[in-house]
Design goal:
heterodimer; A: mainly alpha; MetI-like fold; B: mainly alpha; 2 domains; 15 helices
């Protein structure tokens, strides 16, 4: 009977081994080799890692990535939570809102890029024309500022619905009695939010923050289609950098090393945020 | 009631860029390039005709649906027993294993591109549905286990025990009692799994050439091909959006119950 859990886990473990574990081992192997076309691969230890960490372009991409993910989290989480609280709890409005919110999530990522590209291009887009009307000259292909906030707006457009759905699920699960009690105590809306809604949403908020963090760190197709990483390399994020290293460059070992550093950073940041969020809730009188 | 306006404002924000693309898909290129019109003045279906009459686009479309469905099947079959094990039993290393599963969700596909290519080349799976459907398990399986475990933990263990006392065998208990109870959870999981597989580009592009190329890849390749046929591109975008919209619409009730179980 002791083996029973493992029997249940077997299909998942098999699937993970071909979809994650074996590839990961391969990456680790490559990362320590110098693989130049036409020569025998030879072991070079940590050389690739050092070279990547010293690469100016890598540091710049990492810096942009951290800033981007930070901006994504501080806008999408409060916005999504607020929208989830504004969702109707029953009636025909629920289905309609869910369907509308679900649409951006099911659009292929490069199509998201295309939608925003045709929306913002200066020759065929309506957004530049609208800004022009207000007297602001919008130039996504030459202004770093415009490119940045457009990529951010696109991500908010694309992913806030996921935060809304997750928070909505959490809000639905809070017993109505809690709010009744708050009402009887004449708690202000802010106090009700702070001491009833927020603590009960801790679990789902952790999920929402972690998912958005992991996924925003992996962003690739949307900015790639929208801006191509430019102007210059101002919207080149870690994934774009890594895939260039892995396919474009001749040095597969470098690509592998970049991948490992990248993976390690994502796990590290996710882990830190996870621990911080767990402790935050506890200190602030959250139950559960 | 100003809360409602906040929601409506956001829904409008979602719809505006989509409307612009839909609007564009019904225009001839001459109208797209020469003037900004808020609705098509020279209404045309030519862009759609071009796509739907081309074998190339149609195949990509079908490939996408098949791959994402295969991925949902693989993930669900593997995740259900795994989630059951995590939610019902304590065993040595369960917490560590759970977190390890979860770290796979954090793996950036860009990091796995080359090893995937090599592994699946050796298995002779490149340019088949299998390659993409299996590769997408990388990020979908951890998510599925995570969500299903949440749903299953929400169902009291006593239900299992009662069923066994009533003489149900394990398979009969699963089929007749347990699965119906977590049906909304399975719906949410299948929805998210399909979604993440349907929309992924990087791995799908690396692992397919022509025969199994999904619609996302067809789109990028024609995008890169130079000829900026905006009308056709917009129409293709609209067509790539439709299955998603249909799915959300079909499962909206299940999703509403699934989400209201509060266990995502």
């Amino acid at each position: 009977m002791k083996q029973r859990p493992w029997l249940f886990l077997l299909p998942a473990l098999l699937l993970v081994s071909i979809s994650a574990f074996i590839p990961l081992i391969t990456v680790m192997n490559y990362s320590q080799l110098t693989l130049l076309p036409g020569t025998e691969p030879y072991f070079s230890g940590l050389e690739n890692f050092v070279a990547i960490l010293e690469d100016e372009a890598f540091r710049a991409a990492l810096g942009r990535q951290v800033i981007f993910s930070f901006l994504v989290l501080i806008t999408e989480i409060p916005l999504g939570l607020g929208l989830a609280m504004a969702m109707p709890k029953e009636g025909p409005g629920v289905g309609l809102s869910l369907v509308l919110l679900g649409i951006p999530l099911l659009i292929p990522w490069n199509v998201v890029g295309i939608i925003w590209r045709v929306f913002t291009r200066s020759d065929i887009g309506v957004l530049p024309a609208a800004f022009d009307w207000f007297g602001y000259s919008y130039e996504i292909s030459s202004s770093t500022f415009d490119a940045w906030w457009t990529v951010l707006a696109m991500d908010i457009w694309h992913w806030t619905p996921l935060v809304v759905l997750i928070c909505y699920a959490g809000i639905q699960a809070i017993p109505e009695e809690y709010y009744m009690a708050a009402k009887i105590d004449r708690a202000s809306p802010w106090k009700t939010f702070r001491y009833v809604t927020l603590p009960n949403l801790r679990g789902v908020l952790i999920i929402a923050v972690l998912l958005r963090l992991m996924d925003s760190f992996k962003i690739y197709a949307e900015p790639f289609v929208l801006t191509g990483g430019g102007p210059g390399s101002s919207t080149t994020f870690l994934s774009t950098y890594t895939s260039r290293m892995a396919i474009g460059g001749f040095q597969m070992g470098r690509g592998a090393a970049t991948s490992l550093i990248y993976f390690f950073i994502v796990i590290l940041i996710s882990f830190v945020i996870y621990i911080v969020m767990l402790n935050l809730g506890q200190g602030a009188g959250g139950d559960q | 009631m100003n809360k409602k306006y906040y929601l409506i404002l956001f829904l409008v924000f979602i719809l505006v860029p989509i409307y612009w693309m839909v609007n564009m898909s019904f225009k001839p290129n001459s109208e797209i390039l020469n003037r900004l019109t808020l609705y098509p003045h020279e209404f045309t279906l030519a862009n759609y005709k071009e796509i739907l009459s081309s074998e190339f686009w149609r195949a990509g479309y079908i490939n996408s649906i098949l791959m994402a469905s295969m991925n949902v099947v693989f993930v669900t079959i593997a995740a259900l027993p795994a989630a059951y094990a995590f939610s019902r039993w304590d065993f040595r290393g369960d917490k560590h294993l759970f977190f390890w599963f979860l770290t796979n969700r954090m793996a950036p596909p860009a990091a796995f591109m080359v090893p995937f290519f090599i592994l699946y080349s050796n298995l002779n799976l490149i340019d088949t549905y299998w390659a993409v459907a299996l590769a997408h398990c990388l990020f979908n399986l951890p998510l599925a286990i995570w969500i299903l475990e949440g749903f299953m933990s929400g169902i009291p263990k006593e239900i299992d025990e009662m069923a066994f006392i009533d003489g149900h065998s394990f398979p009969s208990f699963c089929w007749n009692i347990f699965l119906p109870l977590i049906k909304p959870g399975i719906a949410v999981t299948a929805f998210l799994t399909f979604m993440f597989s349907w929309v992924e580009l990087l791995l799908a592009r690396t692992l397919t050439n022509e025969a199994a190329q999904p619609i996302t890849v067809t789109l990028t390749r024609s995008l890169g091909a130079g000829g900026w046929d905006w009308g056709v591109l917009a129409a293709a975008g609209v067509i790539a959006m439709i299955p998603g919209a249909i799915i959300v619409y079909l499962v909206r009730d299940l999703l509403a119950t699934g989400f209201s179980m509060g266990r995502v």
